[in-house]
Specification:
two-stranded antiparallel sheet; two-stranded parallel ribbon; 13 helices
Length: 310
């Protein structure tokens, strides 16, 4: 049986300076050791479940209170207050929480990418939650950058912010999920009244597969294809351009990437070499040496300065 892809991680580490962090020390000063314990519990839930974020509301305060046990002394009210203080101190990002009801931070995301950067070939990230600078190697290494795949979410049905006293813990998970789903469907209907009809994934993939010149690892390619939201027409048009590139034609297609890799890395956005047109270099006499294939570079006719022809 195929192993299910896991969003979260199996472990995470605490820096030796964690308890020297000013934000953590302020939480400690305000709530004592229980406050720091709650922070660590929340961090563990983030890394365990979604890896770099977690939606959070009053229900989560209640569930965490139960998890600590009857002797833990961590009431939903206390957990709510600790989370609010952590947001105030920017331990968690205030902007993302205000818009989406999500707990995350740049440091959480850096740590997550360091954990999974070498073990995963594909790292999906929600664009609206992403807080790092992809041009900074401190945030994202070059090797990890090529594995990131960003996608967007609907932002209308935002989770409700924590209530001041941790009360009003109403409704079951089923009711909450139903409300969120109805909100998403309503919003999607408003925005996408004129949108493309739902695509036939299998039919579109068949079209893509037939167009792709290197037919390797079909199952993996189909998984990658399902995660791509770009119309198949765009993919096939890009393939037709890239099939004519020198890289893809060289050595019988030796350097053509596997289809799954091409899809996951956004290969349709790549452009063929400048000056290369349908496998020909047009008027090579007006091209620079960098635009002419090496095998043709010394076959150019000399300029006819006297009008006598070559």
């Amino acid at each position: 049986m195929e192993r299910r892809f896991k969003d979260g991680v199996d472990y995470w580490n605490i820096d030796v300076d964690f308890f020297e962090n000013k934000k953590v020390r302020l939480i400690l000063a305000s709530f004592g050791a229980k406050g720091v314990f709650i922070l660590i519990m929340i961090l563990n839930e983030i890394y365990r479940t979604c890896g770099y974020y977690k939606k959070w509301d009053n229900d989560d305060c209640l569930l965490m209170s139960i998890k600590t046990g009857t002797d833990g002394g961590c009431s939903p009210t206390l957990i709510s207050e600790v989370v609010k203080e952590a947001l105030k101190r920017s331990f968690f990002d205030k902007g993302v929480f205000a818009r989406f009801g999500v707990l995350t931070s740049p440091e959480i995301q850096r740590r997550f990418l360091r954990i999974v950067g070498n073990s995963r070939d594909y790292i999906p990230m929600i664009q609206e939650y992403f807080l790092l600078n992809t041009s900074s190697r401190r945030d994202v290494t070059g090797a990890t950058l090529g594995k990131l795949a960003f996608f967007s979410i609907d932002s209308k049905g935002n989770a409700e912010n924590l209530k001041g006293n941790g009360q009003n813990l109403k409704g079951s998970d089923k009711e909450q999920n139903t409300k969120e789903q109805e909100s998403i469907e309503q919003h999607s209907g408003e925005e996408n009244a004129n949108a493309r009809p739902p695509r036939d994934v299998e039919a579109d993939f068949k079209r893509f597969w037939n167009a792709y010149p290197k037919k390797m690892n079909k199952q993996d390619a189909f998984k990658a294809f399902k995660g791509v939201k770009v119309p198949v027409e765009t993919l096939c048009a890009a393939l037709e351009r890239q099939k004519q590139s020198r890289q893809w034609r060289e050595d019988g297609g030796k350097y053509i990437p596997y289809p799954a890799t091409w899809l996951r890395k956004g290969g349709w956005e790549n452009e063929p070499e400048r000056g290369y047109n349908n496998g020909n270099y047009g008027n090579a006499g007006n091209a620079s040496p960098g635009e002419i294939p090496p095998e043709n570079r010394w076959n150019l006719k000399p300029l006819d300065l006297d009008g006598q022809g070559g």
